C-alpha cells in the first residue's frame, strides 16, 4: 500500500467508493482554476461545441457556459501532468494494482445556478471489460456540498448487476431508478473541500443533480482500469490498434487479458444523438433529476 490504509481499501471493496480529503495544495488548485479560466475564455464567441469544449444548452456566444472540457489531458499540460502524478495514481494502484491504463478524462463543469445534472448510470455500462478492476478518480476543484450538485452513489451497488441503460430501442446511458429497485433516499453524496479526491468503482450506480447553488461545482475525472482489463467488443472504448492502446498506459506494463465472472451489458444499438453523456441521456424517457434551467 502506497497511500491508503487497509481499512480504506476494505471500505472501498465493501462500498465501492472513497473520499480522500485535501490531497491538493492551495497552489495546485490555483493553477488548475487558472487553466479552467483559459478554457472558459475560449468558449466566448462560440455558437456550438468543439472537439475540446462541450457547451451548456443555455450557452450563448456573449455569455459562455461550459458543461465539459473533453479529454483535457490531450491539450493541457497542467491536466496531463496531474494525471501522471502519484496524487492520482498512487491510490488507484493501492486499489486495483500496479499496472494501469487510461480510459478517458473529462472535466465536468457545474457552474452556479444552472450546471447540468447527470442521470443515474454505471460507467461499466458504457465500457464493459473482461474484469471489473475499473475505477474513476475525481479531483474536487471547488468546495462540494449537498446544494451544488455533488456526485452521489448507491453504496454496494458495484456488487450488483449492470442495469439496463436502454430506452426506445437505443442505449441512452442512464437507468430507470425506480424500475431497477433503487430509492434516492439511500444515495450517499461524495462531498469534501476543494482539493479532495474521490474514487468510485466502475460498476457503482451514481449520478448528480442540477447545481442550484450560488457556487460552482467542478470535478476533473481520470477514468482508468487495471492493464489486464480489456474492452469487450461493442464497448465505447475506442482505439485504432495495439500501439495506440498501449500508449494509454499510465504506469506499469501492458498485460494479457484476465477474464472474471463479471456481469456485462453491451451499449448497442448506439445512441442516435450525441457523443457526451449529456447528449446521450436526452434519449431517457424517465428522469430522476430536473434539467438545466435557462
Automatic annotation (TrEMBL):
- Top-level taxon of origin: Bacteria
Q: Pfam families under this entry?
A: PhyH
**Protein name, per record:** Ectoine hydroxylase-related dioxygenase, phytanoyl-CoA dioxygenase (PhyH) family
* Keyword tags: Dioxygenase, Oxidoreductase
As one GO molecular function, the record gives:
iron ion binding
What InterPro entries does the record tag this protein with? Phytyl_CoA_dOase-like
